[in-house]
Specification:
The chain is α/β, with parallel strands linked by helices. It has eight helices and seven strands. It has a five-stranded mixed sheet, with helices on both faces. Keywords: Signal.
Amino acid sequence: MRLFRNTIAVLAMMLTVHQMSAWAQNMSYGADNFYRSDIVTVTPITFQDLYRTTIQGNLFTRNNLSRSIESPAIIVGHPMSAVKEQSAKFYATKLAEQGFVTVSLDLPFWGASGVPRSIISARRASWIGSGLAFSLHKSQTLAQRKAIIAAAAQERWVEAEGGPTQYSGGVPSHLTANTSAVDREFYDFYFTRRGDNPKFMNFYPFNDIDSISPRPLLFISDDQAHSREFSENAYAQAKEPKELYWVPGAGHVDLYDRVELIPWDKLTQFFRANFR
């Protein structure tokens, strides 16, 4: 009985500490992850991607949006270990206020999309592309004015129009005279008997980053983020037209929801200038 009471006391203390931590959260710079807008309508959506995984998300439209005119559409992806209600919904709502039709998705195996849960797949970007295919048919927009924040792939356009799915290879499986020393080092393990496993799928997100060109690419990063090198590396490997925009004084998580730090004007200007 004493052990039981002690356990209850410990649990109560943990709950109290948790409550205190919640009240002590840093809400500076207008942090508002669960922002709601009186001028935006949110509609739940469900569809299947090309792998027959059920994807769930939300469609955001401004209340006074005219169905008789074309409006650009934007797909908003959530952070890697988050769900659509964390950061993605916030961005989708704010951009919808500017007149864009936006969609936020739970990427497969996160949130309400597919099982098992909490899996990060190499096909992550393709599911965002499936959201683009959905918006091609469900939003009142022109095909040439679609945008995607988290990924861009021409093949998704073909699939959205009913064309066949085309698959491409991953990391090159043979050496050439131009193969770098780093690639040779990894090849020596992954593509020889030393470490080759036929069930392993090789994937590196930067492999095809140059294929986004000639579509414009905007990187927005925090200059105080511990992860800023990833933005720098991605920018260096991307082809023109491209731009790397630094948010002064911001850290890695600050751009998730801090209204006053996020460069909304920059985002709006970029999309409006490039929807042609």
